[in-house]
Amino acid sequence: MRIVRRRAGGPSGTIPGVCREVSAASDAGPGSGGVWSTPPAYRGGGAVRGPCEHAFVSSVICVHLPRFPLVVAADGRGELLAQPVALAPEPGRSAVVGEVSPAAEAAGVRRGLPLGEALARCPSLRLLPPDPVAVQARWDELVGRLEGIGAAVETAQDVAAREVSARGGASVALDPEVGTAWFLATSVRRLHGGSLDGTVAAVRGALRMPVRIGAAPTRFLSRVAAGRARVRRPVVIASPPAGEPVDLGVLAGEPVAALARRPGFERLVPTLERLGIATLGELRDLPAGTVGARFGRLGLDAHELLQGRESPLRPRDPTTRLEADLLLPEAASGEQLGHALGLLIDRVLADPGRRHRPVRSLLLQASLVERGTWQERVVLREAMSDAGRIRLALGPRLALLPSPAERLALRVDGFGVPVPADRPLLEEDGAIRRARLQEAVRQVREVAGPEGALRVVGIDPDSRVAERQMALTPFEA
Predict the structure, then answer these.
(1) Alpha-carbon distances, residue 444 vs 6, 437, 448 (angstroms)
(2) Which residue from 62, 72, 110, 135 has the fewest beta carbons nearer than 10 Å?
(3) Which of 324, 325, 335 is nearest to 463 (CA)?
(4) Does 151 have pLDDT greater than 80?
(5) In this structure, how many other beta carbons lie within 10 angstroms of the beta carbon of residue 262?
(6) Mean pLDDT of 222-235
(7) Helix H or strand E segment including 428
(8) Does the pLDDT at position 226 exceed 80?
(9) 325 pairs with which residues across the strands?
(10) Percent helix, strand and coil across the chain, each rounded to 5?
(11) Quick one: pLDDT at residue 1?
């Protein structure tokens, strides 16, 4: 494989710039799979590194599974993905199609297109029922495999939750890009031979499915690189010397629509296109003052992303996963569903794995009686541990259920730092009593276990079956 090198400085200096493939006629060793390998002139001991190795050492690796929800819905039927197919609209949501196959995309069907327009553009379009719960379960499994090779993983869901939290406001739902994850190259480099080839092979061996890989100095640029990559050909953008901007290289020609992959930037794309700014390179070359004067804070943030300035990765904690589920005795809705949600919240908050941390984002899932699943991700305005306030935030989401549920599940997706509550002076005595009661409950559970302090909750007072009238749930002061 031949690699174009862009040299800065003398022969002994580092080699920043872009490492990209210019020919598929590879001289890499057998079994390399067409990925980059360090040219022979740069192999061996000493401090001299090949260009791709230099890029890899200081890079963020992006792993992207294209059309992941559609692949899960197809359930391994590869011949189905070769036809014009798309995910049907989710029950209770906007009537727009989800992920589409390459054949449907070639016919003019795009994700987010209204259902009627999609069928008009492609009359032979087949619709697959979405299964968001299965998609989430499959994605959790794949992220666990990445962590199994030593990677400290951050997912697109984590990034979207932080973006929503930073904007503040009321509790909101979000629908991040499932199938995208990042990790630092330094976290796995020495575990897999110290080269990009070894890391790519480890990722493919762990996931065992087609994957696109990009490497760049920042999270956003590595995602754009992964979008340009092919299954057997990663794209690598080298890190610049300290204090210098990133050389976008092959990414400079990418359309500005790539900004929409970052939560919150999708509304900037139409304005840029109307003004004739068609590529990332054109936006990056504009003076920062001009961008700020015309597009405001959002434009400056996009400009900084293209300069290679972005917050560092914040990998998730793989040891922390709090979830609770409840099989409903019969098709539940209305008040019964609200009681079930209260039970789940109590169980999650009473889990010892929470370690007194307030929750920030939650995932509410349901299995529907009429087949299919439903899922809603909610980011709270502030981290909290108050069961009543969490129920107020999640309760209205139950009204979005398209049909009665037979199973309800709640999972904590992220924690936050405690936010001190502002209490009036006259309520201080009550606060002290509650604190003492909470400490007493904690001590009881230390001795008797999680079920040492319970309370009785009414579920269905009119039921003839005693077990359905009331239920036990963890006591929270």
Answers:
(1) 66, 11, 6
(2) 110
(3) 335
(4) yes
(5) 22
(6) 91
(7) helix 428-448
(8) yes
(9) 409
(10) 40, 20, 40
(11) 40
Can you identify the CATH homologous superfamily of domain 322-474?
Answer: DNA polymerase, Y-family, little finger domain (3.30.1490.100)
Pairing of β 322-332 and β 405-415: antiparallel
Quick one: tokens of 95? Answer: 């009537």
CATH architecture of 254-308: Orthogonal Bundle (1.10)
Phi/psi at 270 (5° precision) = -60, -40
Q: How confident is the model at residue 364 (pLDDT cuts 50, 70, 90)?
A: very high
Amino acid at 129: P
DSSP sequence for 89-101? PPTTS-SB---B-
Q: What is the pLDDT of residues 39-76, one digit of tens each?
A: 333 333 333 334 444 445 458 999 999 999 999 999 87
Would you list the domain boundaries of the chain?
254-308, 322-474
How far does the chain reach from its first CA to its final CA, in angstroms?
Answer: 65
What burial class does residue 378 get, using C-beta atoms within 10 Å of its C-beta: 0-12 exposed, 13-18 middle, 19+ buried? buried
**DSSP helix/strand/coil, 115:** helix
Nearest to 14 by CA among 59, 43, 55, 61: 55
Look up residue 25 and give its amino acid.
A
Q: Are 216 and 59 in contact (CB under 8 A)?
A: yes
And the tokens for 163? Answer: 């973006």
Per-residue pLDDT for 349 more than 50? yes
pLDDT in tens, 441-468: 888 888 888 888 888 887 777 777 777 7
Average pLDDT score over residue span 373-386: 87
- Report the relative pairing of strands 60-64 and 454-458 from DSSP bridges: unpaired
d(CA 45, CA 48): 8
- The DSSP 8-state label assigned to residue 305 in this structure reads H
